[in-house]
Design goal:
The complex is a heterodimer.
Chain A: H1 25-38, H2 48-60, H3 65-79, H4 81-84, H5 97-108, H6 113-131, H7 134-140, H8 144-159, H9 172-177
Helix pairs in contact in A: 1-2, 1-3, 1-5, 2-6, 5-6
Chain B: E1 16-18, E2 21-24, H1 28-39, E3 44-47, H2 62-69, E4 77-78, E5 84-85, H3 108-118, H4 125-138, E6 141-143, H5 151-163, E7 167-169, E8 171-173, H6 199-205, E9 209-211, E10 214-222, E11 225-234, E12 241-248, E13 251-254, H7 257-266, E14 279-281, E15 286-292, E16 307-309, E17 317-321, H8 326-332, H9 337-344, E18 350-357, E19 363-367, E20 373-376, H10 381-400, E21 405-407, E22 415-416, H11 419-423, E23 437-438, E24 469-471, H12 486-506
Parallel strand pairs in B: 1-12, 2-3, 2-13, 3-9, 13-24
Antiparallel strand pairs in B: 4-5, 6-8, 7-16, 10-11, 11-12, 14-19, 15-18, 15-21, 15-23, 16-17, 17-18, 19-20, 21-22
Helix pairs in contact in B: 1-6, 1-12, 4-12
Classes of the chains: A mainly alpha, B alpha+beta.
Chain lengths: 185, 514
């Protein structure tokens, strides 16, 4: 693999990614509702629900089957939350985004610890892949590949006996704050 | 370096392998023990559940890196109050592929304590010195060069200096690290000297073979001796266990970590003399404090954990910088939706740090009916008190350096905008269940000892009640060590490997291992 091909999202190194965990159409609808409830409304990301759903379903293959099955159950419980909380006859995936998001917050602050933990788990499952998306990374100023390519080059320079760039400082404030101690080797 | 994988086990003769010694696991313990054996001239088979991912395949994205490198795609947790998520590697190289690379020796007083209580001077600081030196050379444990250090570490170091706190520059297992800061998804520059690029290539050069993508289900026990392992090849598409593969040897070294080592051994009802197998789980838990500064820090640029603040080490409290990527930070914050994005939009002004607290209690690992290990650990009142004090002090450092606000590890009080707000929080106002903890240092569930009545393995790492079966990972730690365990695991595993090789050369028969 040449240095230009490094840092690919799906490196061609013979690793086979598992197929998505099977889900019924109803569970997929519930999952899309949870994704809409948990993800920020901006930036607008094309096919957001499908991309996150597919990613999570692939990751479920690598989990303990019991945990993956518990995730499916959690989706069902949360989707029905408006009903069992006597707030609405609609399911979560049928609610407007803001209402669904508020409901997830309420569940997260529930006095029933298991419900709070369930929201923490769902949040982790959805927001992990969400903040991993290129569009979202660019929106928040996190674009690691160019930086890492530059560091790979920097290391090659060091190994061939040359000097390499330092990292930062990134603001005048930091410059005045920073006085590096003598680095020990 | 080549590792056999799923397709190789489908061949007619792909279901059985033979060597002098079988090593289960290729992380810090397994790789170090196996390398010692291979370089002593024994034939070694490593059996690894994860896949072989070379340095050229590492990237900064979680979408494929987490499934291929992390056990259970990172969904592992210790149950208790609070529940504590933990991570372990599942790849050739084990957790060393995804750890932060801290290279600390166990403190002298801890090692001398082990020597005294176990009655073996070779476990003391002076007795272990040569082993640690050997490990340090093997993984290139050294101080970072200035080219690799980013602004978040500088802030942390200078903050401690301003407050008059003692901080120490860490040694890390790195060779010309340039601060790409992708340690947790595999080092893309090859600088981090995980066992993938340090021990294992040496072992393979000495003739060892690596069987990857094999999940060990059970030990093979014949005539009261351990003579191999039975594993299942994992189908990469369905992740379901397929063909049964046996790896046989005169001895087996189990190095699956402090959760899966007891899980495997408990399946055979081992550890009977002391009934201690699975007990004494140590976690070295930590809590995150994320500070928002009024200027850009780009904390994801530059090495992770250049320093540790050790001013409060006598209380069992350490502080460390540990910047994490957005896909890991976002889910750990107590918000979602636009609130979550509002914080992540400041990502380049955030500095993520942690409070590590030395264990004051222990937990346990058991086999559940669900076909998976269940770990249980409840923090003590003293732990809660130390976390609250540690978090307050770490906040003091950040506010001293000009932070605008800090995100606290408390579900009920997630934000503080000044030290006055932090001081209003006490151990009495925070419930244990509302503390958000995390760990990567699991230890102590198959502890080493000099007597069968109170330990699981003997001073050579061999199970008291199963000749030929050894343990070489953090499970064997007799007590907590209070620092990052990687080097201590490697040193003890090297010791176990060398002692087994010595016995082998004295009696080169199957009995030598027992």
């Amino acid at each position: 693999m040449t240095s230009d091909q490094r840092l690919q999202r799906h490196p061609k190194d013979s690793f086979t990614m598992a197929e998505p965990w099977p889900m019924s159409a109803a569970t997929v609808r519930a999952f899309h509702g949870v994704i809409r409830a948990l993800c920020p409304t901006a930036p607008v990301v094309p096919e957001l629900e499908v991309r996150i759903e597919q990613q999570v379903r692939k990751m479920m293959r690598y989990m303990q089957p019991t945990i993956a099955k518990a995730f499916i159950v959690a989706l069902g419980v949360v989707d029905l939350a408006p009903v069992w909380r006597f707030k609405s006859l609609k399911r979560l995936h049928q609610l407007p985004q803001a209402e669904a998001s508020a409901l997830m917050s309420a569940l997260g602050h529930s006095k029933i610890a298991a419900l709070g933990d369930m929201v923490v788990g769902l949040r982790a499952a959805v927001l992990g892949p969400y903040y991993d998306l290129e569009e979202v990374g660019a929106h928040i100023g996190w674009e690691p590949a160019p930086f890492m390519r530059a560091r790979i080059t920097a290391r090659e320079r060091i190994l061939s006996g040359h000097a390499a760039d330092r990292i930062g400082p990134f603001s005048p404030t930091t410059t005045t704050l920073v006085k590096m101690p003598e680095t020990r080797r | 370096m080549r590792a056999l994988s799923f397709a190789d086990y489908q061949a007619a003769d792909g279901d059985h392998f033979q060597a002098d010694v079988v090593v289960v696991g290729t992380g810090a313990g397994g790789a170090a023990a196996g390398t010692a054996l291979a370089e002593a001239g024994l034939s070694v088979l490593f059996v690894e559940e994860g896949s072989h991912t070379p340095t050229s395949s590492f990237n900064p994205y979680m979408s494929e890196s987490i499934p291929r490198l992390y056990r259970d795609a990172g969904t592992t947790a210790v149950m208790g109050t609070p529940n504590i998520p933990y991570i372990e590697g599942r790849a050739v190289g084990g957790t060393t592929v995804i750890n932060g690379g801290m290279s600390y020796r166990a403190p002298e007083h801890i090692l001398d304590g082990w020597a005294r209580t176990l009655g073996d001077e070779s476990l003391g600081a002076s007795g272990m010195d040569a082993l640690f030196s050997d490990v340090e050379r093997s993984i290139s444990a050294s101080y970072q060069s200035e080219e690799s250090i980013g602004d978040d570490n500088r802030l942390m170091y200078l903050g401690a200096q301003k407050l008059g706190w003692h901080s120490e520059i860490n040694r890390r297992n790195q060779a010309s690290c340039v601060g790409a800061n992708n340690c947790i998804l595999g080092c893309p520059t090859g600088a981090k000297q995980s066992t993938l690029v340090s021990y294992l290539p040496r072992a393979v050069a000495a003739g060892a073979r690596i069987l990857s993508e094999l999940r060990v289900d059970s030990l093979i026990i014949e005539s009261g001796r351990c003579v191999g392992v039975s594993a299942r090849a994992i189908d990469p598409v369905t992740r379901k266990p397929g063909r049964v593969v046996q790896a046989r040897g005169a001895a087996v070294i189990v190095a699956c970590g402090a959760v899966h080592t007891p899980y495997l051994l408990l399946g055979h009802r081992l550890g009977r003399p002391s009934k201690q197998l699975g007990k004494h789980l140590l976690l070295h838990p930590n809590a995150k404090v994320i500070a928002q500064y009024p200027f850009e820090t780009h904390s994801w640029k530059g090495v992770s954990q250049w320093t540790q603040v050790r001013e409060f080490h006598s209380e069992g409290i350490l502080f460390a910088e540990n910047m994490i990527p957005p896909f890991a930070l976002g889910p750990t914050l107590p918000w979602h939706g636009d609130e979550s994005m509002a914080m992540l939009e400041r990502y380049n002004r955030l500095v993520s740090t942690g409070v590590l607290v030395e264990d004051s209690t222990t937990g346990r690992v058991a086999r559940s009916m669900l076909g998976m290990p269940v770990a249980r650990y409840d923090i003590t009142d003293w732990d809660l008190d130390r976390f609250v004090r540690g978090v307050a002090r770490l906040c003091e450092l950040h506010f001293t350096m000009g932070a605008e606000q800090v995100v606290l590890p408390y579900r009920t009080q997630p934000i503080a905008r000044s030290m006055d707000e932090v001081r209003q929080i006490s151990a009495r106002s925070i419930k244990k269940k509302d503390l958000e903890l995390f760990t990567v240092h699991l230890m102590g569930t198959a502890r080493m000892g000099s007597r069968a009545v109170d330990s699981v393995v003997d001073l050579d790492g061999q199970l008291w009640d199963l000749p030929g079966c050894y343990v070489a990972d953090a499970s064997v730690f007799p007590t907590a060590i209070g620092v990052n365990p990687q080097m201590t695991i490697m040193a003890l595993a090297t010791r176990t490997g060398r002692r087994l090789a010595e016995r082998w050369s004295a009696r080169p028969t199957l009995d030598a291992a027992a």
